[in-house]
Each structure stands twice: as structure tokens, then as C-alpha cells.
Specification:
single chain, Rossmann fold, 19 helices
Length: 473
């Protein structure tokens, strides 16, 4: 990901070079190398970049270079989430060194009056979410005609979250705008169309998209039913070292809450992060995670945007995301800026087609794996494995069992059915198709009765004959 291009060859302002040196940055990443020189010339730029590729500095350096500490708004950066706004603003503060610029975040969930007073004192750069920027503009606290530079960060997420009408509202009022920068991990046609509406003959920087999109990490999948995903997750978390940090992704807020509740019952120290939490709650959790006080966060995709923690060594897809781009965003949380990491996906039978599409689209090599072994010194699973026959059931919920019962001994399918009803004390509807093949008998049983049936069939003889039962995958 890094190139041989050094920041100190760009003749950047001394304050910014000091900021880069203080952060220990010497060499530009690909997206920085390809984007910064164009943007410094004042050109409109569209860049493809995933989270963790160094994109914040790719637009931050040219923006900060052109801004002066005057207390007049000169640049506006729009992000899809509060968390990402905070991340961008924090990196801007570090990059500017001792330039003295006032950089302010503007997003919902914070005190309006307090934010208004801060804005009225003067600000050089605003990083915010579209809705609150609109609100503060309508209230007269942000003069959108003033800034000469605008950047849209993670434009594809903006589109997914329905922000483009708000963005266009903001753009139309930025009458002093001279340069626009747009960054996105993917480029749906709607983004291309919108870009042509409000950008001036932009340069596209699509440097080695595949390499840029997929971080250098080890990818694994475990084929497991939903009932036992927590069992696998427990084993993954048990492998964590003291310095490791983990993000577990779920598709819904409800699933986040359930996973947090269940893991806490098993004595794991975890925190949940989703959109129903207050801003103060989210910031408190994120700060604890960044400080390393919380080692494991369970989050939805939107809530995890903007998490920038270098120590993340493990990402777990508890649910496979419904859209393919989110998978790349998720695994990009580890392996940041060239570091190593692992991403494990817990895949039920229903998830397999989606994972196959993701692998084919991005050319990912995801290694099928069994649940990892428990680490040395731990001889008991943190979460007990459940009996789960749902993965082998057909669409009607029936599982096929092969019995070591010769057709001659069975007598008839009717006899076998009656014996099963008697032994299992179940309704006849729990018994599906019964068929004979060579020297065995195949019985379809409803998944709700399989656990009982397997024990009963191996303990109770059929016409004096002991049986063995094997589930047919």
C-alpha cells in the first residue's frame, strides 16, 4: 500500500510537515501519491479509496495547505456519520501541526446552542454530517457561500443512507466553491451522475482498485448454523491476546443487543454500538475502545463507520452483510496501513450464496475452516455447543437419517413409521418419507425431533435388532 514517495519531497508548508513528522509518517500511500499532487493544483478530484488506505490525508493535506487561521470558513468536509466526522477532524488536527487552524465538527446529537456559539466565534474548517450542516446553515451559523473547498468522504455510503438530496442542497448554496474533492470505495452510477452535476471536469484516480479495496489479511469462513455461531465466536474471542482488539459485525441493532447480552452472560467484556444509542453513549464506547479499555465491540455497519483503531487484529462477520461493499468496509477495519489481521465469517447455509457472490466479485480467497481449536490452557468452551439440525434440514424442516435396518427386517414403511411414533411419542406429521435402499432404511424426521430420535433409535431395538443412526448431510 505504501509507495516510495516521501512527504518531504512535496514542499508542503512547514507546519504540515511538522505534523506529519510528529505522526511518524514518511511515505505516502497509493491514494495519497496519486491524489494529493492533483488536488494541490486546484483540480476537482474523484478518488477511489477504502477506509484505512490513508484517504483522510489524501484530501486533508491539500485542504489544510490552502487554509489560513483567520476564523473564516474556508473548507467544508461532509461525512456520512458522526463517528467518521470525529475521525477526520482528529486527523486534521494532527496533520495541521502548529498551523493554528480552528477545525470544528458539526453533527446531530449534540447541544445546538453550544455548537452555535462555537461556530459564531469563528472557524476555518468544518467537518460534519449533511443534516446538521443544513440545520446550522438555515439558522444562520454557517455561511455556505464562504468556503472555497468542499470534500465528500465515503460518497457511496452517503448514497446508501439517502444523503444525496441534502448534499445537493448544500452544494447549491456553496456559491464561492472553487474546488471539490470526492472519495468513495465504489462508484454506483448515481454517484458518477451526481459528480458531473456539481464537479468541474474532475480527474478520476482509480489506482489499482482491487489492491486498494482488499486489505492484506487472512480470511476464513466457518460453515455453522445460527444456533452455534455464538459457540464459534466464543472460541475466536478465547484466542485473543491481551493487546488484541476485535470488532464483531451484525446486520441489525437487535442482533447487536442479543449478541452483547449473550456474550456478557458468558463473562466476555463486550460493548454494543448501533444507531439507537445516544451520541454521548457512542462517544464514550468509542473512546474506551480507542484507549484499549474495551477490547471487543459488536456493531452494525453504519455505527462502525469512522472507527480508526490500529490495534484491531480480528474482525468477525457474525452475519454476512446484505450488500457486498459492506463486506470490504468491514474487513478493512483490520490490516490497517499494512498491518496483519484476520477476518472470520460465520456462514449458515442461507449465507453461502451471498458469500460466494462476494468472493467472486472481489476475487477474495476465503479459506473454509473448522471452528478454531481452544488455545493452550483452556480446556472448556466459553460457550457450549448446541444441538442444531437446521443446517441439514430441507426447506420443510425435515432431516434425513440413515438407519442400519435391512428392508427385510423393517417389514414395511408403515411398520417403521408406527415404531417411530411410539418411541418418540410424537405426532405422525413429524415423520416424513421412509424409503428402503439396498441394506439400509432412510427416514425423514422433523428437525425438532432429531435430537430425541437419534438417542431413541440407538438405545431401543427394532424387532430385537440394535440400530445405528447417521444423519445424511
Amino acid at each position: 500500500m505504501f509507495t516510495t514517495t516521501r512527504f518531504d519531497t512535496w514542499d508542503l508548508p512547514e507546519s504540515i510537515q511538522n505534523g506529519l513528522s510528529a505522526m511518524g509518517w514518511e511515505f505516502a500511500t497509493q491514494v495519497q501519491r496519486d491524489t494529493v499532487p492533483l488536488a494541490r493544483q486546484g483540480t476537482d478530484v474523484i478518488g477511489q479509496a477504502r477506509t484505512g488506505s490513508g484517504k483522510t490525508a489524501a484530501f486533508g493535506l491539500p485542504i489544510l495547505e490552502r487554509c489560513q487561521a483567520t476564523g473564516t470558513l474556508q473548507a467544508l468536509v461532509l461525512t456520512p456519520t458522526r463517528e467518521l466526522a470525529n475521525q477526520v477532524a482528529e486527523e486534521f488536527q494532527l496533520l495541521q501541526g502548529d498551523a493554528g487552524l480552528t477545525i470544528l465538527t458539526v453533527y446531530g446529537g449534540t447541544d445546538l446552542e453550544k455548537q452555535a456559539k462555537t461556530l459564531d466565534k469563528g472557524v476555518d474548517v468544518i467537518v460534519g454530517t449533511p443534516g446538521r450542516v443544513m440545520d446550522m446553515s438555515e439558522r444562520g451559523h454557517i455561511d455556505l457561500a464562504a468556503p472555497k473547498m468542499m470534500c465528500l468522504d465515503e460518497a457511496d455510503r452517503m448514497l446508501d443512507m439517502g444523503f444525496f438530496p441534502d448534499i445537493m442542497w448544500v452544494v447549491e448554496r456553496m456559491t464561492g466553491r472553487e474546488q471539490t474533492l470526492l472519495f468513495s470505495a465504489t462508484f454506483p452510477q448515481e454517484i458518477i451522475d451526481a459528480a458531473h452535476e456539481f464537479m468541474n471536469d474532475p480527474d478520476f484516480v482509480l489506482t489499482n482498485a482491487e489492491e486498494l479495496d482488499v486489505p492484506p489479511i487472512d480470511l476464513f469462513s466457518v460453515r455453522i448454523g445460527r444456533s452455534n455461531k455464538l459457540w464459534v465466536l466464543g472460541r475466536l474471542l478465547a484466542r485473543m491476546e491481551d493487546a488484541d482488539q476485535t470488532i464483531i459485525f451484525c446486520n441489525t441493532k437487535r442482533m447487536v443487543d442479543l449478541a452483547v447480552e449473550r456474550l456478557k452472560k458468558h463473562r466476555f467484556d463486550v460493548a454494543g454500538l448501533h444507531g439507537d444509542l445516544s451520541q454521548n453513549q457512542r462517544e464514550r464506547i468509542l473512546n474506551s475502545f480507542k484507549e484499549g479499555e474495551v477490547k471487543t465491540i459488536i456493531a452494525t455497519d453504519v455505527a462502525a463507520r469512522g472507527i480508526d483503531v490500529d490495534g484491531i487484529t480480528l474482525v468477525v462477520n457474525y452475519d454476512i452483510p446484505n450488500d457486498m461493499d459492506s463486506f470490504i468496509h468491514r474487513i478493512g477495519r483490520t490490516g490497517r496501513i499494512g498491518r496483519t489481521g484476520e477476518a472470520w465469517s460465520l456462514v449458515s447455509r442461507d449465507d453461502e450464496p451471498q458469500l460466494s457472490r462476494i468472493m467472486a466479485t472481489y476475487g477474495l480467497d476465503i479459506q473454509p475452516s473448522e471452528a478454531p481449536e481452544l488455545p493452550e490452557g483452556i480446556d472448556r468452551d466459553p460457550v457450549r455447543r448446541q444441538e442444531d439440525f437446521g443446517e441439514t434440514a430441507d426447506v420443510f424442516g425435515y432431516v434425513t437419517v440413515k438407519l442400519s435396518l435391512h428392508p427385510d427386517q423393517a417389514g414395511s414403511t408403515h411398520s417403521v413409521a408406527n415404531w417411530l411414533v411410539e418411541q418418540l411419542r410424537c405426532d405422525e406429521l413429524a415423520i416424513g418419507t421412509i424409503r428402503f435402499d439396498d441394506d439400509s432404511t432412510y427416514v425423514s424426521l422433523h428437525s425438532s425431533k432429531i435430537g430425541t430420535a437419534m438417542k431413541a433409535m440407538e438405545k431401543r431395538p427394532y424387532n430385537g435388532e440394535n440400530l445405528t443412526a447417521v444423519i445424511v448431510e
